[in-house]
Write a structure and sequence with these properties.
By secondary structure, the protein is mainly beta. The longest helix has 18 residues. A 16-stranded antiparallel barrel has the order 1-2-3-4-5-6-7-8-9-10-11-12-13-14-15-16. The protein is globular and about 50 Å long. The protein has a single domain, classed as Porin (Beta Barrel), CATH 2.40.160.10. A hairpin with an 8-residue loop joins strand 13 and strand 14.
Length: about 350
């Protein structure tokens, strides 16, 4: 749970360059505005921080305060139909600071939708992550088990039809935003959603599915493929949000993984503009569906929001202990700051 990988020197140099470029753009030192284009820009960010206590009596144990994430984002309209988005992802990855460029893409209006060019958000688990609604506490199930990456380099197109039907197509490298392309194959992905995509902040419902496919070389003169399929749905009112998902990652050269997850969020009070929610998520993860050994995990807690840009969330985690039994595995106090 506490294992981390060290960044390579090349990655560290790239990270420093990304931060310098981001700061230069944010300060207006790099001229991005097209001649005669409307000048609109904005800088925003999110910070994730927590205290974690390992409650497993048979594990080595740890008790730590951890900075987990800092996202710095910059956006600018180059014209009425073209805009740019940049986001730097700074995280604790075994050293005090490691930085990656997560988003760096151009958006252009085309017909009923938009074209995305560059390092962009992916269309596999972005809706289920929104349905879950508590990214600062824990990654979405598919993200945590590496079914797909949240961003990748390539081309995308998204459109909405009849206000309720959303289609999102992408062609990307398939390696995510932390790694460079290392083969000739590309990942094809498609997502279809009916209903409201942002249930964490809006009432309504959604139902949808996403699928991705990418070949890879396996051995000598052999090609296998990795396919990911997810089916999901959720419903939200002003006080209640419930949702679930069924996910499969099929590696034709190895094995098939599976996730079944359900989550709930309920707003219990608002006292002097301080909002309190109770939430929970239950997940069953199967590393290989052809072998026994499902992993059950439960995350539950309270979310306290004194102001809109601050969330404080004490949580408990229940999962498999070092002994193999199911029990209380960790206690956390989580913070999210937005600006």
């Amino acid at each position: 749970m506490n294992s981390r990988t060290q960044p390579t020197p090349t990655a560290a140099r790239l990270a420093k360059s990304a931060v310098i470029v981001f700061i230069a753009i944010a300060a207006g030192l790099v001229p991005l505005e097209a001649q005669g284009a409307e000048s609109k820009k904005g800088i925003s960010g999110k910070v994730y921080f927590n205290w974690t206590y390992d409650a497993d009596p048979d594990a080595a144990g740890y008790n730590e305060f951890t900075f987990t994430r800092l996202y710095l984002s910059y956006g600018k309209n180059l014209s009425e139909s073209i805009k740019i988005t940049l986001t730097t992802d700074i995280l604790n990855n075994g050293t005090p600071w490691v930085a990656y460029q997560k988003y760096a893409y151009l958006t252009a209006k085309l017909g009923k939708g938009e074209v995305f060019i560059g390092l962009q958000g992916m269309n596999i688990f972005n809706i289920t992550e929104s349905n879950w609604g508590y990214r600062f506490l824990a990654k979405s199930s598919m993200d945590a088990h590496k079914f797909a990456s949240s961003a990748d380099m390539g081309l995308g197109y998204a459109a909405t039809f009849a206000e309720k039907v959303h289609l999102h197509l992408t062609v990307t490298n398939g390696k995510g935003y932390k790694y460079v392309e290392n083969d000739k194959y590309k990942k094809l992905a498609a997502q279809a959603v009916f209903g409201e995509k942002s249930l964490a902040s809006h009432s309504g419902f959604n139902a949808g599915a996403a699928f991705s496919f990418e070949p890879y070389e396996f051995g000598i003169d052999m090609t296998e493929s990795i396919s990911v399929l997810t089916v999901f749905g959720a419903f939200a009112t002003e006080s209640l949000r419930i949702g679930g998902e069924f996910d499969r990652k099929i590696d034709s050269g190895k094995y098939t993984q599976q996730i079944i997850a359900a989550y709930l969020d309920y707003h219990i009070s608002a006292i002097h503009k301080m909002h309190v929610n109770v939430f929970g998520r239950v997940e069953i993860y199967d590393k290989n569906i052809d072998e026994p050994g499902d992993e059950l995990s439960i995350l539950a807690g309270l979310s306290i929001s004194p102001v809109k840009t601050l969330h404080i969330a004490p949580t408990i985690q229940i999962g498999e202990l070092a002994s193999g039994d199911l029990g209380l595995s960790a206690l956390q106090l989580n913070f999210e700051f937005k600006f």
